[in-house]
């Protein structure tokens, strides 16, 4: 690779997280504005309404498996294993995170969400596998 290409998928994932926070804020504000909940209800988040709970859960999900993605991307860069293959894996993982989050905050159907999660998991596993092969053979 010629530069910092491996970091762009990381930036794209950060954009997803920021967008989810904006959506959470918008949904909560709407709930307060329509009188469905009191603003003070969000102080301790003990009874998050379903409309915003799915977004909050999706945000939490972005800090689980994707943490391993970000670490792997940095390691790929440091070890110079950031080639076209690893970049393809990284973009595929982020694309799957976007679709997974989209399903999560809309229909939240496990029938669709679960295969997307598994595909992302396998993609990330392959990325780590590539990193291990690279380090073992370099």
Write the layout of secondary structure elements.
Layout: H1 7-33, H2 50-61, H3 65-78, H4 84-105, H5 110-137
Structural summary, described in words:
- The protein contains 5 helices and no strands.
- With 138 residues, the chain is mainly alpha-helical.
- The chain has one domain: Up-down Bundle (Four Helix Bundle (Hemerythrin (Met), subunit A)).
- The longest helix is centred in the C-terminal third of the chain and has 28 residues, at 110-137.
- It is elongated and about 60 Å long.
- 26% of the residues are buried.
- The model has no long low-confidence stretch (mean pLDDT 96).
Q: Tell me, what is the CATH class?
A: Mainly Alpha
- As a whole number of angstroms, the C-alpha radius of gyration is 18 Å
Tally of distinct domains: 1
Q: Secondary-structure element sequence?
A: HHHHH
Contiguous uncertain segments of 5+ residues: none
CATH fold call:
Four Helix Bundle (Hemerythrin (Met), subunit A)
Query: How far apart are the first and last residues' alpha carbons, in Å?
Result: 16 Å
Tell me the major beta sheet: none
Q: Give the helix/strand class.
A: mainly alpha
Mean pLDDT, all residues: 96
What's the overall geometry? Answer: elongated
What helical percentage do the residues reach? Answer: over 70%
Number of strands: 0
Q: Architecture, CATH level 2?
A: Up-down Bundle
User: How many distinct helices?
Assistant: 5
Classify the beta-strand content into a percent band.
under 5%
What is the compact description of this entry?
The chain is mainly alpha-helical and 138 residues long. It has helices spanning 7-33, 50-61, 65-78, 84-105, 110-137.
